[in-house]
Structure prediction request, 386 residues.
Amino acid sequence: MKRILVVDSDEQVASILSIKLKQAGLEAETAGNSADALKIIPDFCPDLIVSEMILPKMSGIDFMKRVKMNPEMMRIPFVFLSSSRDVENKILALDMGVTAVFAKPLFINDFLKNIKEILGEYGQKSVSDQAGSAPEGNVSDISVLNLLSILYENKSSGEIEFSASSDKKGTVFCEAGCVVRAETEGGENKDGMEELFNILSWSDGTFAVNYKDVDAERNISLPQEGIVGKAAEWLERYTGILKNLPPSDTVVYLDFAKFVENLNKLPDDTDTVIRNIGETGSRICDIIDSCGGDRLNTVTCLKCLFDLSLLSVENPDEGKLSESSVGSVENAENKAEVAMMEAGQAEETPAGIPAKAGKSWKLMLLFFLLALLAAAAMFIYYRGLI
Prediction:
C-alpha cells in the first residue's frame, strides 16, 4: 500500500485529505508543520508528500529542500497545495523539482486521480534510474551553512562540491555529518577553517552532494558545533561589512596623495589591498579574490580606506586631468590675449624693434625727448648770457 504524508497547517483540510486518501486505498499520515513532518518521515517512509506551500516555522520550499538533502528521502516526490495566486512562487517550486502544484480549493476526485497517476509514474522508475540522481542546486537557494546543517542533521557522509560563478571551485568533506576538511583550488595546504570561510563568502554558484564514505586528510579539528558557530559568526561579520561597501562589481579608485597623508592610520594588511587596486582601479570583487587570505581582513581594509575617503568610485586622476585641461585652456587664452596686445603694439613700433620691447621703446623715446628739451633750454640759457 502506498503511503502519503499530508502536511498542512489547516487541520480540517489535512483531516479531509487523509480520509479521502484512505478511502482511495492509500495509507495517509498528517502533520501540521514542517518540523513535525521531518520527525514523521524517517519512520513513516512516505511514497509521496503533499504539502501546503505556506507553512509555519519553515516554508514548503525550504521543507522540500531539507527532505531532498537526505540521501534516504531525496527521491520522494513532492506535490504542493497553494491558495495563493502568486505565479512566480509556483514556477519556482516547479523549477526546483516539485512534481505538481494544485490550487485550493481542491476538486477532490481530480486530485485523487492525479495522485494515483504520479504514484504510478514514480513506481515504474527503475532503481538504477533513481540512483543516478544526486542533490544539487544553487547556493543562492540553499546557503553553505544550511547545507552543512542538513548533512549534520542526517548524519551523512560525503563530499559537497561548490562551483562559484567566478569559476572558483571548492570541496567540503563530511564524516557522519561532521566537517573534517575544506579546500579550494590552489589552497589544499591552507588551514581548513580559512578555506571554509572562503567558500562561505560565495553568494552565488552551484553545489552538488556526493554521498559516500570519506577518506580525507583532516584539516579542521574543531567539533561540529564549534565549526558552525565560528562559521556563522564569520559570515555575519563579513556580510555586515559588505553591506556598507558599494556593490561588489563596482570599480573603485585610490587617491594616492591622500593615501600618503594617512599612512599612520591604516591597518598593517592594507599594502596587499593597495597593490591589487592598481593605478587604473579595480572591481571590489576582483580585489577580494586577488588578495587571498582571510576575506574578512580584506573587506575590513576596504571599509577603512572608504571611511578615510582614500577610495572612491570616481577616478581622482580624471579630475586632475580635467583641472589641468581647464588650466591649459585658460593659459592658452591668456597667451592669445598677450599675443594680440603685443601684435597691436608692434604696429606702433618702428621697424627693427622687437614687439616685446614696445613698452621699453616708448620709455626710451620719452627720456630722449625730455633730454633733448633740456639740452635746448640749456643752449638758449647760455646763448642769452652771451
Summary: Confidence is low (pLDDT under 50) at residues 126-132, 321-330, 335-357.
